[in-house]
Amino acid sequence: MAPQTNLSAGKRDTAESILNAAERLCAARGIEAVSIRDVAAEAGTSIPVIYHYYKSRTNLLRAVLVARFEEIGGKYDRLLTALEAQKAPAVRDILRAVLEPINQWRKPGREASLQFYALALVSPIPEVKDALDAGVAGFRREPFPWTEPEGPAHAGGGGWSTTAPRSSGAVTTWPRSKSCAKS
């Protein structure tokens, strides 16, 4: 889903088709090699339409990441909530919660999402790195109760946060847990 949720259905379809075209092209050619002109041709739209929706190539790339993180956010939330309910979850359950949401991109027809994500991980473009960091940090949760030797992680207003990232370009910092603060 495109980040612009207040658009009409036709405009949402256009925005989504632009995102999908950008993702496919970046997956095939590399993020640095794709231009707005290439995306316009692939999406069957004009360059001004892309600039109307996304304002810049960088915003378009951020929007692809934001849309994909929003797509998997619900699944992460459900799996992590199930882990939180367990007193001492098995390692396989922890790994499943971390890997399963992204693993859906391995399904036929979704390979471009996985390839785009992999390329974003090594992209030299600072805005792509920042958007990726913000997306990953958007799924962070305070330490699990069973990882805190001094009591529940939720004491003192802690809690879980799976807020999907926004295309602000700001770098997200990770809060230190009580156990990290002692070292």
Description:
With 183 residues, this protein is mostly helical. It has one domain (9-163): Tetracycline Repressor, domain 2 (Orthogonal Bundle), CATH 1.10.357.10. Helices cover 57% and strands 0% of the residues. It contains eight helices and no strands. It has helices spanning 9-29, 36-43, 47-54, 57-84, 91-103, 111-121, 126-137, 178-181. It is elongated, with a radius of gyration of 18 Å.
What is the structure about, briefly put?
With 183 residues, the chain is an all-alpha fold.
Rg for CA atoms:
18 Å
Elements, N to C (H/E):
HHHHHHHH
**Uncertain runs:** 1-5, 149-183
Give the CATH topology: Tetracycline Repressor, domain 2
Structural class: mainly alpha
Q: For the record, what is the CATH homologous superfamily label?
A: Tetracycline Repressor, domain 2
The CATH class assignment is Mainly Alpha
Shape, principal axes of CA atoms: elongated
Question: Percent of residues in beta strands?
Answer: under 5%
Average pLDDT number: 78
Helix fraction, binned, reads 55-70%
Task: Work out the count of structural domains.
Answer: 1
CATH architecture: Orthogonal Bundle
Distance between the termini: 42 Å
Largest sheet: none
Strand segment tally: 0
